[in-house]
Structure prediction request, 504 residues.
Amino acid sequence: MVVRGDPGTGKTTLTLAMLEAFYGRKIYITGRRSRRGVLDDYPWLGSVEGHEIEIVDRVTVDSNHTAALPDPPDGSPPIDETVLAGVMDSLPPPLRRAWGRQGSLDDLAREFAWVPVGMRRVLGRLASQGRAMIVVDPWDAFVDELVDLAPRVPNGPAVREQLERSALRLLARGSAHLVLVLEHREPSQLDYLVDGIIATRYVSRDGAPERWISTPKLRGIRIDTESYPYTLEGGRFTCIAPEPATYTDVPIFIEPDPEPAPESIWPGSRAYAETFGPLKLGELTMIESDSKTPDAGIRSLTFPMIGSVMRTGGRVVYEPPPSQRVTDLWEGLAGSFTPAQFQAQVRVVSPGSTLPEGHPLLTSMVHVPRPMGAAEVASVPHSQTPKGREFLAEPPPGTAPGLSVFSGDGLRAIGDLTGRPYTPEGLAIVAKSYLVGRPIHMVFVTRTGDPLAEGLRMLASTQLTLENRQGRTFLYGRRPRTPGFVLTHRGAEEERAYNLLRIV
Prediction:
């Protein structure tokens, strides 16, 4: 297998992760760094469970043994017999026996003679008995040295391509799985000689780094997904798989507030708090998402905020986009709160939504009146239900802070229904009037490019952008500026909190 990519894309970290996951003998041959340097960069190598990864420093090996063959004297045979004897002496007995069964040892020695003695000892590691994986990092370092050496050796390979074919033919005589690390991303003749190709690449999205791995070739294996994002957080390679479709059915888990802070709301997530801090009272958070981002990704962020406020006794007004079901809120938080708590603490504004008789959210629904003469569409009695914003703006004395979660699509639906559409300027005035001097935090959720967002952008103390690519939801902090994250979920099925996996 070949692993190729530009410098700094994580090829070494990837191959060490492959060795760690392999069951059998693990050998890592380094061509440019010392063994000590590798251990310093990856201290976790000393704690790998099971078989330890053997680190072979080719530079040190070559310095302890003759690194090159002597120049043959004039008139000598193509290869001196003493050289042939030295070649065979440098091969471990298992390798000599295994390779001897495939042809004449003399022929083998002649084919192997142009390789430096120190490198022969390194390649001799391929005589491992049983299952083994050997990583050569980088393959280029070995080939470059052999290219320099070959012209000095009679019958040595003439060009790089011949040299690589000859070297791979030698290595293939062993029984180990071989992984070659290349220091470039351009295709080469190796692509046709190996069984698999892994390519790593680094891209920048508006200044935030992203890393992607692709598998253009895996002989004999069906490739369902060609590209995967990954991160090198903590010096470990972590491939980011798509979220399973079932995660949308898991109840929302509200992580407890470890240290309640004044004048703020706990976001219900440790990962969010560590990255963006708590929700400050009197301020606004804006969450923009592209058209591919599923509603489940937005709910993962906003529902823990709602649950956190309810847990402290605060009030919530929820105005979802028409694409979301009103029942999503109840289904996500039903395991944490009773119907009576929803009735006392939550108001839902969702024009045209209907609920069956007896549903726990029925008394929390807020009626949205149509203009005079228009047909009524409300499905619930509303004479005793306080209006949404009044419910939030005028809480009883001594109650906890409130939260308003509203959406651009939801506001447009309300505007169309009432005959009073929102404008960017008007929305900014409304938001300021409710935020100033009140213990409230607002969360505005909308699609990227929504004109209504422009009126609130300068008010937002926190701005997040969500983008969905190949089944993963990427999150970027625009204010404050942050690296990229991927929204993932961790924990047991019944208590699965979301996590923000940082991409580095």
